Amino acid sequence: MSNHSSAPLIRLLRYGHAFRGRIWLATLFSILNKLFDLAPPVLIGMAVDIVVNQQSSVFARLGFPEVSTQLWILATITLIVWGFESIWEYLLKLCWRNLAQSIQHTLRLDAYDHVQKLELAYFEARSTGGMMAILNDDINQLERFLDVGANDLIQLLTTVITVGGMFIYLTPGVAWMALLPMPFVVAGSYLFQKRIAPRYMAVREQVSILNSYLSNNLGGIATIKSYTTEPYELRQIERESQIYQEKNQHAIALSAAFVPIIRMVIALGFSAIMIAAGLMAAGGELNVGAYSILVFMTQRLLWPLTRLGETLDLYQRAMASTHRVLDLLQAQPTITDGPQTLPAAQVSGEIIFDDISFNYERRASTLNHLSLTVHAGQTIALVGATGSGKSTIVKLLLRFYEPQQGRILLDGHDIRDLRLHDLRKSIGLVSQDVYLFHGTVYENIAYGSSGAHMEDVIAAARTAEAHDFIMELPDDYQTIVGERGQKLSGGQRQRISIARAVLKNPPVLVLDEATSAVDNETEAAIQRSLERITVGRTTIVIAHRLSTIRNAHCIYVLDKGEVVETGTHEALLARNGLYTNLWQVQTGEKMRAHG
């Protein structure tokens, strides 16, 4: 991470080396356009020379004594020059704008691809809105600079070199007057940049905060409406938007002052050259045409410097954004692929948790020296109070997190040695928190089994007892489920999720409270489908409702991250321990006993 602290432009150029050829081509068109753009003052000087000096003008010395001939030649040259200037302008805009689009597209895909590789803990520590701001707003900001600012900077540099060279050639004696404001403008620009960079960084950070508020509120709009907190939420957004406005004003206060100050410095240089060169021309030391060129060129040299403020403004905003995007790209995933491949078809499904200890960051221990074995093809159940570590076991099995101690084996392989793709392809997860994507019922069932045939999807839906209700939807399998599946009931979403797992046909199935959000009738339907799909495959069931796991081969009772009881349903009831207690609470025997 050595380049983490280097300038964002250097980091960006290092990143964009694939576009080097296109950047050089666009730069060439910018330079050519500016060189032809600088020709008109020279042409005006020549015109003055023709009219004032007539028979002794430059063209006359080239063998065209007639003034009319000279003017026709000059007009022809002017048309050719302006024609080329227009061609180069078209090409530079075409190149820079397409380049901006390409870099933006590549950067967004790279950033998103990288984000997908980061571990779950990274997302839990950050807001979705903040990451959206980087993947969208910040990358767009960079595009805006490449669209306009890059060309402006190159053309400014071309102007300074070309016009400075022309001055030194034409009037070495007074050239320094025109160039005098330069060091002040450059120094002023540098100081301006240093001062404004942190202000724009603060603006970008605030965009993230504002975005995360908006994204959270839109996601929780039903809760906002049900608790009638619209005015409160509006005040929250107003406060964050106000801070954004103030941070922008803080940056604007500085950027707005830049141009007027630079303009006054430039005016001094312009006035100095006008007087000094004017006196030389009046005294016969300088040709009148050359004087015209000097005055116009001074304006051409110094005037673009007033735009330097806007360009640097764009540049600084883009660099603040670049910083954030490249920092995201440099976040290293802590959970990475192992060297071994293990195709799902070869997995028999034996799982061993060997002396596992785990705790989430800044929290007390969740699992404590936990050991348990799941034999291939068996169904085991994990039960226990909320917070006893049941769901954490699943997250560790899928390598969403790494244990601090111990190891997990799949068919004798330490899962850290396996490719993540192979490990997760072998496990089908049906969780209580079903996530459906905006799309059709068919797309949601076929998710993760790309290109699945409709017959297979229907067969999976039948197994999950979802086919009947799907056929009652407006467009059956082509019905759009809405964002997060909000157009369906909890039970319907759950059954689509089960159908998705059935279609994936994994050797290991994990059911994380798969029936928690449904009514009794739906639960019975889900229970029937689960009994069908668990046959012959390793299944880990996390259940609140103990009635759903009576037939498990082995039940592990957890308490505060440790296995406190193990056995079948009957054996555990006979022990009269924690499991018996949970069972009696659920079946109401405790209530009757107290009654």
TrEMBL record:
Membrane topology category: Multi-pass membrane protein
Q: Where in the cell is it found?
A: Cell membrane
Q: Supply one GO CC term from the record.
A: plasma membrane
Instruction: Tell me which residues make up the ABC transporter domain.
Output: 351-585
Alphabetically list the UniProt keywords. Answer: ATP-binding, Cell membrane, Membrane, Nucleotide-binding, Transmembrane, Transmembrane helix, Transport
Pfam families registered for this protein in UniProt: ABC_membrane (PF00664), ABC_tran (PF00005)
The UniProt transmembrane annotation reads 12-32, 71-92, 153-170, 176-192, 251-282
The terms under GO molecular function for this entry are: ABC-type oligopeptide transporter activity; ATP binding; ATP hydrolysis activity
PANTHER family given for it?
A: ATP-BINDING CASSETTE SUB-FAMILY B MEMBER 10, MITOCHONDRIAL (PTHR43394:SF1), ATP-DEPENDENT PERMEASE MDL1, MITOCHONDRIAL (PTHR43394)
State the protein's name. Answer: ABC transporter, fused permease and ATPase domains
Task: Name the source organism.
Answer: Nitrosomonas europaea (strain ATCC 19718 / CIP 103999 / KCTC 2705 / NBRC 14298)
